[in-house]
Design a protein that fits this description.
two-stranded antiparallel ribbon, 5-stranded mixed beta sheet, alpha/beta, single chain, about 40% helix
Length: about 150
């Protein structure tokens, strides 16, 4: 990767994504930049990493690692949208994520740099803990299929 003057790049004027610049800035402060900004070579418009660029500017960085991509305007827009949409389509393996966060939380650094905090961890534990069985007879309805089961304690 090559570090270039941050002011030679411009956020894409048609980027519709609303990024969490504060969270990205926290990550940049903790780890530095570990992936380059991708920009359209002919225009200098950022097509992947608009909010990373904004966070770096906010932090006062003068240079940022960036890679040009040679494409026309139509392709640039498609990359811009696809890069943003791909994160929307991703999901977590909640059980594996919980175990990973528990492991990190037990270290000296705890959850620092993960963008998760103790409240997030507790919420995940609560979400994955099944409710206690009823103490009285009840009809339990399966939330997935709607089947009803009579429960006798």
């Amino acid at each position: 990767m090559v570090a270039i003057n941050i002011n030679t790049l411009k956020p894409h004027p048609r980027n519709v994504r609303q990024g969490d610049i504060g969270a990205i800035a926290t990550s940049l402060q903790t780890f530095g930049q570990y992936k380059p900004i991708i920009y359209q070579a002919s225009t200098g418009h950022i097509i992947a990493g608009n909010h990373t660029w904004k966070a770096a500017k906010q932090l006062g960085w003068t240079h940022i690692e960036a890679k040009p991509f040679d494409c026309n305007d139509d392709t640039a827009l498609r990359i811009l949208i696809a890069d943003n949409r791909s994160t929307d389509l991703a999901t977590y393996d909640d059980t594996a994520l919980l175990e990973l966060l528990k492991e990190l939380a037990a270290t000296e650094q705890s959850l620092e740099g993960t963008l998760f905090d103790e409240n997030d961890l507790q919420q995940m534990v609560d979400d994955q803990t099944p409710p206690p069985p009823p103490q009285e007879p009840a009809t339990i309805i399966c939330p997935e299929c709607g089947a009803q089961v009579k429960y006798e304690p």
